[in-house]
Amino acid sequence: MEYDIVIGMEIHAELATKSKIFCSCSTEFGADENTHACPVCLGMPGVLPVLNEQVVEFATKAGLALNCHIANFSKMDRKNYFYPDLPKAYQTSQFDLPICTGGTVEIEVNGETKPIGITRIHIEEDAGKLLHESADGTLVDVNRCGVPLIEIVTEPDIRGAEEARVFAEKVRNILEYVGVSDCKMQEGSIRFDVNLSIKEKGTEVLGTRTEMKNLNSFRALQRAVQYESKRQIIELKKGHRIIQETRKWDDAKGASASMRSKEEAQDYRYFPEPDLVPIVISDEQIERTKSELPELPEAKRNRYVSELGLPEYDAAVLTTSKFTSKYFEDTVALFNEPKLISNWLMVDIPALLKENELTMETISFSPEKLAELLTLIKEGTISGKIGKSVLEEMFKTSASPKEIVEKNNWGQMSDTSELQGIIEKIVEENPKSLEDIAAGNKKAYGFLTGQVMKATKGQANPQVANGIIRQVVEGKLNG
């Protein structure tokens, strides 16, 4: 029997506000434990929450970017449950009247485009964090309590690990582009929950679903889906029943384990939040927010192809991060050769970013300096090979490319008299190359050029060197 994998996702993204959703406490990551907390965060008796207006603006912006309908009227609700990291014993969220509904995101997998439905996007507050590593036992850090989130809930339209990863990447990119979240997975700013079930191929009857929570990388997401779908298929083939449960993914082990039975909505005893007024958004506000949206990744990718002449692949790579695309565009504005810039941003720079543990957001030199480096190569001041050495130095120092070239005496050799002597010596030392050229093997010219570049440590001007090599070789053969 063959099976289909059916996946719905919930994506939690922390909103990039300076203060929390219902109080003025800071949302800054990395502070000492329990220093960003107040009576409102902790739900002390007598306190009243006040909704952060920017949270509503950011949620609206995210909804519009994901093609959702924005509700003119929505409200906050209490989601009641007990957990040690939830001091109020309830989470302020949205239940039956979310702020955004009915969106769609198109993904492309294996050359095919497919829409993934967005059921809803709602606003809620984050819970705290349990610290299990202490010698004193499990401790609670409440800094994260009240940090504003949006939860993006999809339809069960995703089929398989690859689609799940591509969808998650695209949503992350969109949220990053519109500036509503920094989407730093290493800080937990964006987290993925996966609801997965298996159904018999050809039937519309869905199987029993399990949930895996708080997957915090695309790799973990893909591996978790692969593992859980395989686990469920094996259980079904054995004749076992799938239990509706929440499972915890262990990325180190590459396996999941049961945590608890899966709750239903009624288990949370939702009711309207009595301390907060409803959220009312006018059509004028929605239109104004829509007009403020930046160019989104897909539109940017299409523009790079149609206006800048980039290949589809280059355009897709450059638009996967708003920091990469901005760096690319800023460099193009100074040095108008998009494809050449694209090559450096896709090959040489990523390798050095990884080596230096940097990202395009934290890269150590400006677009002006990259444009200066490419200008030096284009003008023949340095060779492309030397250019790569200059780039390495740019990652290590704040010096400009010109300063690096002058300091290391890396300027390209174009002096024909100096090159003439070097080339004559190399041709003399390689009689086999002369024989090959005489026999019609023109590739031997390339070998001689390589020897010249080696002898000059990459500083010879290739065009000048090639011209002299041909003159010397022809002189030898005709002499």
Automatic annotation (TrEMBL):
Keywords per UniProt: ATP-binding, Ligase, Nucleotide-binding, Protein biosynthesis, Transferase
SMART domains: GatB_Yqey (SM00845)
Gene Ontology molecular function: any one: ATP binding
Domain of life: Bacteria
Reactions catalysed, as given in the entry: L-glutamyl-tRNA(Gln) + L-glutamine + ATP + H2O = L-glutaminyl-tRNA(Gln) + L-glutamate + ADP + phosphate + H(+); L-aspartyl-tRNA(Asn) + L-glutamine + ATP + H2O = L-asparaginyl-tRNA(Asn) + L-glutamate + ADP + phosphate + 2 H(+)
Enzyme Commission number(s) from the entry: 6.3.5.-
Top-level class of the enzyme under EC nomenclature: ligase
Pfam entry (one): GatB_N
Gene3D superfamilies linked to this entry: 1.10.10.410, GatB domain, N-terminal subdomain
PROSITE patterns per the UniProt record, alphabetical: GATB
Coiled-coil residue spans: none
Gene Ontology biological-process annotations: glutaminyl-tRNAGln biosynthesis via transamidation; translation
Domain Asn/Gln amidotransferase, first and last residues per copy: 326-473
InterPro entries cross-referenced by the UniProt entry: Asn/Gln-tRNA_amidoTrfase_suB/E, Asn/Gln-tRNA_Trfase_suB/E_cat, Asn/Gln_amidotransferase, Asn/Gln_tRNA_amidoTrase-B-like, GatB, GatB_C_1, GatB_Yqey_C_2, Gln-tRNA_amidoTrfase_suB_CS
SUPFAM superfamilies for this protein: GatB/YqeY motif, Glutamine synthetase/guanido kinase
PANTHER family: GLUTAMYL-TRNA GLN AMIDOTRANSFERASE SUBUNIT B MITOCHONDRIAL AND PROKARYOTIC PET112-RELATED (PTHR11659), GLUTAMYL-TRNA(GLN) AMIDOTRANSFERASE SUBUNIT B, MITOCHONDRIAL (PTHR11659:SF0)
Subunit-level organization: Heterotrimer of A, B and C subunits.
Family to which this protein belongs: Belongs to the GatB/GatE family. GatB subfamily.
Purpose of the protein: Allows the formation of correctly charged Asn-tRNA(Asn) or Gln-tRNA(Gln) through the transamidation of misacylated Asp-tRNA(Asn) or Glu-tRNA(Gln) in organisms which lack either or both of asparaginyl-tRNA or glutaminyl-tRNA synthetases. The reaction takes place in the presence of glutamine and ATP through an activated phospho-Asp-tRNA(Asn) or phospho-Glu-tRNA(Gln).
The name this protein goes by in its record: Aspartyl/glutamyl-tRNA(Asn/Gln) amidotransferase subunit B
Native organism: Eubacterium aggregans
